Amino acid sequence: MLVINSNDVKIYNLSHGKSLPEWLSDKKRRALMKKDLDVRRRIELIQDFDMPAVSDCIQMSPDGQYILVTGVYKPRVRCFEVKNLSMKFERCFDSEVTKFQIISDDYSKVVFLQCDRYVEFHAQFGRYYRLRIPKFGRDLKYHYPSCDLFVVGSGPDIYRINLEQGRFLAPFTTDASELNALDINPLHQLLVVGTKEGKVEAWDPRAKRRAGVLDCALGAVTTETRITSLPAVTSLKFKDSTVMGVGTSTGQILLYDIRSDKPFTVKDHQYGKEIKKLAFHPYQGHDLVASMDSRVLRYWDKDTGKPFCSIEAKADFNDFCLVPDTGMMFLANEDKKMLTYYIPSLGPAPSWCSFLDNLTEELEETNVTSVYDDYKFVTAKDLDELGLSHLIGSEMLRAYMHGYFMDLRLYKKAKSLVDPFSIEKFKKKKISEKIDEERANRVQVRKLPKINQELALKLINDEESIKVATQEGKKVKQNKVQAASILHDERFKLLFENPDFEVDKNADEYKLLNPVVSRLDKQREKKLRKELITEENEEEEEEGRSSNGEDSDFYDSSEDEKKMAKELSKTYKKVRRDKEQREYEARQAARNEPKFFEVKTDSQFGNAGLKTKSKRSTLEERLQIEEQESITRPRTGGVGSREMTFTLKQSEKFVKAREEAKKHFEERRQIRRSAKGMHTKKVKLR
To answer: Mean of the per-residue pLDDT values for the chain?
Structure first.
């Protein structure tokens, strides 16, 4: 059993502790209880009060003798009898149960609404009948005076199934697109349904017409609530003939007097999750409201909204059930074990477990102290300082791990004898702390590291600009904050101490990847160095803050980003030109350097083979070879390069055609000359 203190209200978790598997034999259970202290101290209020995987819905019969729980997997219902504190029976379904209602005093008549649109009617012996509705159902309620079963779901209709006649009746058609919840007032039998649009429609089952519409979406919007979307109505509950509670999908609970269209109390869970269920609980003349979402179950005052207590668990909540006129409740959650809580402040324990009152009273009266509250843990070094090393091995010290436990009174007495001036040391320590706090407001002198001084200056400047930006409420990028923290990170300590990590400014990679360093111009660098080395007066501090404020705008200003892009492009062009110049100079130097070649002794290689062949052949043979191949032998230049000359060999047809064209050209030229001479003679005769 776990005791939780919420808002000075003690809550007892009766389901806390280890749960034993079902297949464990009685002999092994008894042996385990003897060995394991947690198993022996746990309280198993109801035997095997759990589900194979998840529990969805939980209710108690009107006579208070049976607890029905639905869950998975496989989909099933389990009935527990509180008289015997054990399970009475278990039944399985074809599909998961969405909601169910007990329509008799005991478990003999139950209606189950399943997720595949089926509605099952169960009797004492088992399933009695099964029918299907047109739309997927979400909630159901039984109207006792007319024997009508009302079902709502993913549609605008309220389906009516008369259990006396055994047939469907004409449905009530609403103005909503979908219906999420419904409830019936037990006094005047008014039927209310919650819509997806955030409205509550009231219907009179006797007149079979709509009585009114209440818009809850506008009422949920207040100065204290947080609304992120249109609030839909997810749960409804009547307290009496006039008071009605409405839960929304955005985590608000609205309490209405049905005679008014405005809520008299609005409570926000602050989680933004839908309210799954509401309940009213009387408490010492005040009415408490129990509201539950998937994370928390809260108790709060109906009139003021003041919180009373709250219950949280590791798994999400699905449903809860209050035991009438007691302080006990059961919760269905996304876990195997159903939760059982008991709050003595809300009421006594049920009659079938009245021993809980005596147990909780004893726990409240007994103030249990820890085993080692009156002892002090000391090490061997502490004993040497106190002069108590001779006590090792005696009853005054109890060995534990790497030290000893000793009586706290003995420790205080020995400490006062060994160190009588501890009070004076405490005063000096407090005075030094006060002086350090005052010094923190001054300009601190910081020495620059020997390695990467400009990088350190840049990081210091970024730190100051970030501080100014945060003080002014401006947003700073996370990567800038992380980069500025490198100076204080021990992992990058060698970056400012080891010369091997010094930044090479002449490297192309540095110029391309770090153009941001250029924004530390000479004036600002001198100013920053001056601030780090000497203390300035108040005017200079104000100037420093203003300059830092201008620097803090660097993170949010688009103009600075454009300037940074221009600097980056200029740097890239400059690096590219420098690289091309270096490559050109390297090629020129390689050309001017002498080259050495290794010549093979083979007579068929290079010039040697040609020379030997040319020496053996005659001049006529060499000329014939040159005319046939139209190629001369290669010659070697003075620098070492090789050149080759050749002439194209002309065919006889080409030579003949060229001579005929030349002859034709001469004839045409002679004709033009003769025609020109005749023309000059005619002119003279005239």
So the answer is: 78
Token pair in block for residue 656: 């003949």
What's the token pair of residue 332? 């269905």
- Residue ranges for the chain with pLDDT beneath 50: 367-372, 520-523, 535-557, 602-608, 631-632, 636-641
Cβ-Cβ contacts under 8 Å for 315 (sequence gap 6 or more): 333, 334, 335
- Residue 2's contacts (CB-CB under 8 Å, 6 or more residues apart) are 12, 13, 16, 17
Pairing mode of beta strands 233-238, 635-636: unpaired
Query: Which residues lie across from 150 on neighbouring strands?
Result: 141, 160
The structure tokens 């529990």 sit at: 55
3-state SS track over 513-545 = HCHHHHHCCHHHHHHHHHHHHCCCCHHHHHHHH
Closest Cα partner for 315 from 333, 338, 297? 333
Q: Buried b / exposed e across 187-210, counting CB within 10 Å, b at 16+?
A: eeebbbbbbbbbbbbbbebeeeee
pLDDT of the residue at 602: 47
- Sole residue written with tokens 């809980």: 356
β-partners of residue 129 are 121
pLDDT value of residue 444: 53
Collapse the DSSP code of 495 into the 3-class scheme (helix H, G, I; strand E, B; otherwise coil) and give the result. Answer: helix
Sheet holding 403-407, edge to edge: 375-378, 403-407, 397-400
Question: In angstroms, rounded to a whole number, what is the distance separating the alpha carbons of residues 609 and 602?
Answer: 8
Sort strands 179-184 and 167-173 into parallel, antiparallel or unpaired: unpaired
**Tokens found for residue 141:** 């309620």
Q: Are strands 328-333 and 339-342 parallel, antiparallel or unpaired?
A: antiparallel
Closest CA to 172 of 211, 217, 126, 208: 208
Asked if residues 381 and 111 have their Cβ atoms less than 8 Å apart, the reply is: no
Closest Cα partner for 517 from 449, 452, 576?
452
User: For the whole model, what pTM was predicted?
Assistant: 0.53
DSSP E strands in 84-156: the ranges are: 86-92, 97-102, 110-114, 118-122, 127-132, 137-143, 148-153
> Dihedral through CA 199, CA 205, CA 206, CA 208, nearest 10?
70
| CA–CA distance, 190 with 182 (Å, rounded to integer) | 11
Specify the pLDDT at position 481. 65
Question: How distant is the alpha carbon of residue 599 from its chain centre?
Answer: 73
Q: Taking phi first (over 0 means left), then psi (-120 to 50 degrees means alpha), and beta for anything else, what does residue 452 get?
A: left
From residue 83, give the alpha-carbon distance in Å to each of 88, 103, 325, 416.
10, 21, 17, 63
For the sheet with 286-292, list strands across it: 277-283, 286-292, 296-301, 307-312
Q: Using N-to-C axis directions, what is the helix angle for 522-533 and 538-552, rounded to 10°?
A: 130
Place of tokens 């003995």: 410
Distance CA 381, CA 385 (A): 6
Q: Which amino acid is it at 629?
A: E
Structural tokens at position 434: 């006060």
Pair 253, 266: CB distance under 8 Å: yes
pLDDT tens readout for residues 569-587:
777 777 777 777 778 787 7
